Amino acid sequence: MLRQPIVCVLGHVDHGKTTLLDAIRETAVASKESGGITQHVSASEVPLAAIKDLCGTVLEKMKLDLQLPGLLFIDTPGHEAFVNLRKRGGSIADIAILVVDINQGMQNQTREAIEILREYKTPFVVAATKIDVLMGWKPQHSTCFADAFMGQRKEVQDFLDTKLYQLVGQLSEFGFSAERFDRVEDFTKQIAIIPVSAKTAEGIAELLLFVGGLAQRFLETQLTKKEEALGKGSILEVKDVRGLGMTLDVILYEGTLSEGEHIVFLTKDGKAVKTRIKGLLKPNNSEEVKASGERYKKVKEITAAAGVKIACDHAEDAVAGSSLYEFDERTESETADSLRKEFEEIKIESSQNGVIIEADALGSLEAIVRLFEAEKIPIRHAGIGKVTKRDILEAASVTKIDQLLGVCFAFHTQVETDVQAVSKVEGVKIFEEKVIYNLIVNYKSWRDEKLSSERKEAFSKLTLPAKIYLIPNNCFRVSNPCIFGVEVREGRIRKENRLINGKGESIGEIRSIQVEKEAVDEAKKGQEVAIAVDGPYFGRQVNYKDVLFTDISQEEIDLIEKKYLQSLSEGERELLTEIKKIKGFLSYSF
């Protein structure tokens, strides 16, 4: 017997992942078959009868004999759900749907999703969504894409194909060969792209058919139920439920679990804990909730693949994203070792000067650590749970060395009021996010803003490299102060900058700068201005066509080269080297 495959939906934010899941559920419910959908904890089951009802004509054309009992869709879409469906060596998701807005194509989170799918070696199809908003598209009120496509004008069909082949090209950048589903020649070598609309349900039939068909054809071994197999699952979330206390939302991917049996799972301190199942709960449908007032009903047994809520002791200590096993004395030691290794396998190159990360689940933490390492952001500590006062104090110690790394990240985890108060006192920034990709985006934005602000403040105090040319016939006063016209050939000059000539001799200090008789604080490359300089006598220390330079001290040069060199233009960097040479700061070795 085959179990139903576990299907995950991934993609960029706002590309319609949740809307697509809703469309699949609503279309299944609207199916003529009774019980068009079964609700699980954190999952929705579309049974075979509903799929056959939706895909009848397409099934006949494809001559496909579906034997799967149905498809189990994980209700929580996105990378976070996917990476938290963990087992040793990969994800428990059997197949994935990568959602891409046909109008926008690949976005940053799409690329991140592809990398995650590739790392977990998970087969996937592409749902090219929002075909209903393509220019000129006329909805055909059919769940079948083939029928909807035939009802479009030739130019609309061509426009859709153009968009699809842009997507094919973008997928090829990741090493994937792809094609529209009805043009695929070899499903073992090509990714199927299925155009769909969550709004009109066009293409939903082919999407369900191809997800089910591909899973049945290529994943038969892993979908075959093993007799007497011990229950194995993945803890998707740990939730506090009124009247039940802390519970575990589990996706069971193998075997059976029964009320009263013992299970083993990982705790936050990295240890395996054994406990008894007090209750297995499944959601009531809306009618049952109205009748009983209860959101959940107890069941005696649950068989894979399924989503279930488990009430048990020590649930509050469980680690979301870790495996859960039915307890067996024969494999007790092996199970405990396997659970411990799950945590140990998240390799973190710890750095004394690095950021602090706290996440809600093991899979999320693993994905975040991998993302930060790819961005070369050093990590001091990464753990599961809430941000604590200790985390803040650790980050504060880092700020004394590097302000940009003395920060905390809280992913899908609460930051208590007292911890926020400590962070304000210590000057530690906390990034709270529910989308993995946004952690990096928001951190980079904050870092760039801090660097820009710091650079602006530093630049307002530093003497920057500048070169000026004395314009002929533009002396307005010969001394006390000497006033003459200059062209700024490179860099920028400011009031109070000291000037030197090409021999390194001091000329004097700029008292004021004027542009068309208006006083300004600085002048940049390309501007012609009049400057008043204390010190020189025109015709002696300075003269027409002279070239002067800003007088930069060794300390300022060292600071610029250490922290702000990349903020200078190429011309300014070359000029800095010239000024060092004039002042004798360059050392030569032969």
What can you tell me about this protein's structure?
By secondary structure, this protein is an alpha+beta fold. The chain has 4 domains: 218 residues, 3-Layer(aba) Sandwich (Rossmann fold), CATH 3.40.50.300; 111 residues, Elongation Factor Tu (Ef-tu), domain 3 (Beta Barrel); 102 residues, Rossmann fold (3-Layer(aba) Sandwich); 118 residues, Translation factors (Elongation Factor Tu (Ef-tu), domain 3). It is built from 16 helices and 31 strands. Strand 26 and strand 27 form a beta hairpin. The N and C termini lie far apart (80 Å).
Topology readout:
Layout: E1 6-11, H1 17-29, E2 38-40, E3 43-47, H2 48-62, E4 70-74, H3 79-84, E5 86-87, E6 90-91, E7 95-101, H4 108-119, E8 124-129, H5 145-150, H6 154-172, E9 177-180, E10 190-195, H7 204-218, H8 220-223, E11 232-241, E12 245-254, E13 256-258, E14 262-266, E15 272-283, H9 286-292, E16 296-299, E17 301-303, E18 306-312, E19 323-326, H10 332-344, E20 350-359, H11 362-374, E21 379-384, H12 389-399, E22 407-411, H13 417-426, E23 429-433, H14 436-461, E24 466-477, E25 482-494, E26 498-500, E27 506-515, E28 518-520, E29 522-524, E30 528-534, E31 547-550, H15 554-564, H16 570-583
Parallel strand pairs: 1-4, 1-7, 7-8, 8-10, 9-10, 20-21, 20-22, 22-23
Antiparallel strand pairs: 2-3, 3-4, 5-6, 11-12, 11-19, 12-18, 13-17, 14-15, 14-19, 15-16, 15-18, 24-25, 24-31, 25-29, 25-30, 26-27, 26-31, 27-28, 27-30
Helix pairs in contact: 2-7, 11-14, 12-13
